[in-house]
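Ticket #4471: structure export looks truncated?
Reporter: QA, pipeline team
Priority: medium

Steps to reproduce: submit the single chain below to the structure queue and open the exported record.
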Amino acid sequence: MVSPAGMAAEDGRGAVMPIKSKHPCNYRGCRELTTERYCPEHKRQTERAYDAQRGTSTERGYDSQWSRVRELKLAMNPICESGLCYDHIAVLVHHKDRNPKNNRFDNLESLCQECHNKEHEHERWKCKYK
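Actual output as written to the record:
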């Protein structure tokens, strides 16, 4: 709920939260105001470009052996192991060292989608042109 001044909102528990101010979209030449990094149109466009340059799962090093290891890990640990949540069902298996060929069980952790996204959010926008 927005306050009468339009400066804050309640979070449902009575706490007042500030509203993000709008700024121009970060896409070059776009003047659309948004509270996120990109306006909705350019967010979809940059996500499609990112997915296209990423390559297929096979190109990234995941094969049939990985599929078997992944299924086994999720069967052994079906609840998210991140420590950030305690009751979410794990749907992904994460390589702690980021090496898709290192399938040792001490290098793997079962994660829910939300925790996996948090784990990788800084990598999504990392500059590839160093």
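Status: closed, not a bug. The export was complete when the record was re-opened. Leaving a note from the reviewer for reference: The two ends are 44 Å apart (CA to CA).
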